[in-house]
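Quiz preparation item.
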């Protein structure tokens, strides 16, 4: 077993270095198992704890004594961070904000994205899927290979989030590259030249969003962006301009880069297992468990982190102040204590509850939307093209944090 070799030869710090290197980026799971052999909650070095167990990840994510990395924390670890617009952009969002401001921002954003509004989007998602499938049929006519990621898995979530925010169709393809570049900033171990790419993308995106905000302020319509611009909570607070920008960046990027990969992973599993493809086409209710298992098996976001502002004890481990805890949901989702035969893709597992959308106060705002998109898109795609087949080697993105394919050639049959 590769992980046994890894575990014997390498210590936790070396396993982590290999995990984020190109080989690990292609398949991080053996590296997670090698880490697990050292412990589910693992002191890697002073200031760094890594969490790979399901129960441990849940506990850390729900622990109110821990914080997300916000601007005061960035000041401490990376004094130069303010010179990077990509880092500045995200720190104004709720994902990089702690209570009490976090609650205010989250309430304002969720008031404009309620479960009722999300379920009201179902007909829109169905209509958009059908339109994209028509387009796919044209592109793949006569057996021409098409890239499933660029032409479908990416286009559906970007169309949905763009509809929500009122972004016109001609900007949507541009978003793919910009969003991917911006997300580089979140990788954590980013090299300066990569951060420069993220900064440029953030500047372009900010300029565009500024334009959009100005337009909506002058002429509000019924979209999510107009509601965010107007959003006020009970105390009469509203989002400041920087907070609005930060949260828009987050919604846009979190809203489709991740869902794209959920759809990509889901299609590829089904193409490897024709019995699952048949059930996705024909069995009512099957897509729900199938999407949960896809989320568990290949989480588009592999990890997140928390910060201990003061000494804490978690599950008998004493964690000194200023320790960073890297919570690897991709590893927790394969914890054999929680999931028997974790490396087997099994949509019939009972009670899946993957860690993929995190837990606690930062639990993903868009989880119901992402689930709905995948539950609609996968059966529709497979019904429309019953002979869909992979037509070449799919390639994984060379990234660890946001895991997915950048290219999946298929023929429609
Ligand atoms: C498969 C798709 C998705 C995955 C895997 C995903 C994953 C995550 C994760 C792991 C977090 C929490 C990170 C942490 O606690 O540190 C999160 C937060 C968030 N997600 Fe998602 N997400 C997805 C789709 C979406 C969509 C479609 C939207 C928007 C429409 C969205 C908006 C957000 C927002 C606003 C937060 C911040 C919540 C907070 O800080 O309180 N996500 N997401």
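Solution:
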């Amino acid at each position: 077993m590769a992980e046994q070799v890894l575990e014997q030869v390498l210590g936790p710090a070396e396993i982590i270095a290999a995990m984020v290197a190109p080989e690990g980026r292609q398949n991080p799971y053996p590296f997670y198992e090698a880490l697990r052999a050292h412990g589910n909650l693992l002191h890697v070095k002073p200031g760094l704890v890594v969490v790979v167990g399901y129960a441990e990840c849940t506990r850390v994510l729900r622990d109110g004594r821990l914080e997300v990395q916000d601007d005061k924390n960035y000041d401490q670890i990376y004094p130069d961070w303010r010179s990077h617009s990509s880092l500045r952009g995200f720190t104004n969002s709720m994902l990089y904000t702690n209570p009490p401001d976090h609650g205010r921002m989250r309430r304002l954003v969720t008031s404009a994205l309620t479960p009722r509004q999300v379920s009201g989007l179902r007909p829109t998602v169905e209509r958009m899927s059908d339109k994209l499938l028509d387009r796919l049929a044209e592109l793949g006519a006569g057996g021409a290979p098409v890239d499933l990621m660029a032409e479908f898995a990416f286009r559906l979530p970007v169309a949905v989030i763009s509809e929500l925010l009122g972004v016109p169709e001609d900007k949507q393809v541009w978003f793919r590259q910009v969003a991917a570049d911006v997300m580089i900033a979140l990788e954590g171990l980013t090299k300066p030249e990569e951060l420069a790419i993220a900064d440029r993308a953030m500047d372009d995106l900010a300029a565009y969003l500024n334009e959009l905000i100005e337009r909506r302020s002058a002429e509000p319509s019924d979209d999510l962006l107009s509601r965010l611009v107007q959003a006020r909570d009970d105390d009469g607070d509203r989002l400041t301009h920087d907070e609005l920008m930060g949260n828009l960046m987050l919604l846009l990027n979190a809203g489709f880069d991740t869902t794209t990969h959920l759809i990509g992973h889901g299609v590829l599993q089904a193409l490897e297992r024709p019995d699952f493809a048949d059930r996705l086409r024909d069995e009512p209710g099957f897509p729900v468990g199938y999407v949960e298992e896809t989320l568990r098996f290949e989480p588009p976001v592999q990890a997140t982190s928390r910060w201990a502002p003061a000494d804490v004890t978690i599950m008998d481990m004493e964690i000194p102040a200023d320790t960073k805890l890297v919570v690897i949901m991709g590893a927790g989702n394969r914890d054999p204590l929680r999931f028997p035969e974790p490396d087997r893709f099994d949509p019939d597992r009972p009670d899946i509850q993957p860690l993929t959308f995190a837990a606690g106060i930062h639990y993903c705002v868009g989880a119901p939307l992402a689930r709905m998109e995948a539950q609609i898109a996968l059966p529709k795609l497979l019904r429309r093209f019953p002979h869909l087949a992979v037509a070449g080697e799919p390639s994984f993105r060379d990234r660890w944090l946001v895991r997915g394919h950048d290219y999946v050639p298929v023929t429609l049959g």
